[in-house]
Amino acid sequence: MRQTQGTKGRTSAPASVCPSMRCLKKKTLPFLLIFVSLYVHRTPSQEAHPARQRKPFFERLRRLEEQSLVDQSQAVALAMNQSQAAIQGDVAHLKTWYRQSQRRNRKVDARLQALDLSLSTKSRQWAEKEREQKAQREAIASLALSVQALQDALASLTRQVHSQDARLAALEGQTQRTSSGTVALGLTTAPTPTQLVQRGPGSLQLWRARQVAKSSPQHRGSPHDFTGHVQEMQKFQAPSSHQAAPPRTHQGPGNICGMDPVLIFPNTSTENVIFLSPGFLMPLRALSFCSWVRMATRHLGTLLSYATKDNDNKLVLHGRDSLVPGSIHFVIGDPDFRELSLKPLLDGQWHHICIIWTSVEGKYWLHIDRRLVATGSRFREGYEIPPGGSLVLGQEQDTVGGEFDSSEAFVGSISGLAIWDRALLPGEVANLASGKELPTGAILTLTNVTSVGGFVQRAKCTCLEQCP
Q1: Domain that holds residue 427
Q2: Per-residue pLDDT tens for 346-396?
Q3: Which of 11, 233, 266, 280 is most exposed by smallest CB count within 10 Å?
Q4: Is residue 348 a part of any domain in this protein?
């Protein structure tokens, strides 16, 4: 066909083509015709065989498709089996996790129930405690009211007792004046046992000896023997300078009698000072300072000051007008000190104080009127107060024996002061506060006063409450 078309094209070529080309066309034309006829004759035979040729191809294609479908089905089945196995594993894992979660939930529920029960129990206990505390507070309030009522009744009773004491004192004065008049007339009257107790145990023993002498027939009318008894009792009663002071007598509530002379510091003059000698002769590893004190100002001032060349504050009990009213510094080896409160002393009445210290664990105690009001430890633990210093009352030494400050001066009265080189027992402190005799072993008392300066006055009072 293409050749035929090409031939036609060539026949339609212009006349200007060379004659040789024309000659060639003329020679090849018969061959072309023969080729075309053969081609046309062959074409039907070739068209009759395609059916036979296509049949094996489609079969192979079909077999390939079937094989592909089988492979795909197998792959899908395998994938499905794997997926099913994985899903079953996940389901089993989920079941295990679910069972574990259920067990945990049961445990948590049990714990929550236990906590709920515990909280309920605690709530009931707290409610009961609150009710008990409320009842205790009400009981305490009621008790406080009762105590206040008792205190008021005790105060009233104390006033009545004081009034009776005053009447008794007046009656005794009249009796003494009557006795004096009787003695002036040459007559004698026998004292009552109460009067003898007030005069001291020696007088009571003398009275008993006299009664025995009177009742004994062999001693009746023997004034010589009675005089001997009197002299013997007088020896017993008169203490020497090295013996303990005579026993003190407690004349009713609030009355302390038979004390040492009372030392009165009337103002803040720096000349008002008392020196005690000798000072401390031995090192002190324990100390007890006790005294009857009556304050006259709102600040306590200095009760005692002990100074050495090394330190002017080796032992000090001092307050000043710049401190809190009623407070005092207890100094041992400056600068260490403890601040003590002595507010009960600010009422202008007599009070008994005891300040005790020991280097063992550095313990200290403060007693006011037999009551322990302060205590502590770790204060100058293992420390030793050296001997050989200057000991004064009423002033605070800034140098040994001098440089006093009026703002630290003591204003008031002191009586029954004593110092021990040991820690007194609570019973001994109670006896002192009750007006009984001094415990043994006192290393310094007011009998050791060597110098009284300034306006300090000495007063001799039968009982402390009678002192001005």
Answers
A1: 256-466
A2: 888 999 999 999 999 999 999 999 999 999 999 999 999 999 999 999 999
A3: 11
A4: yes
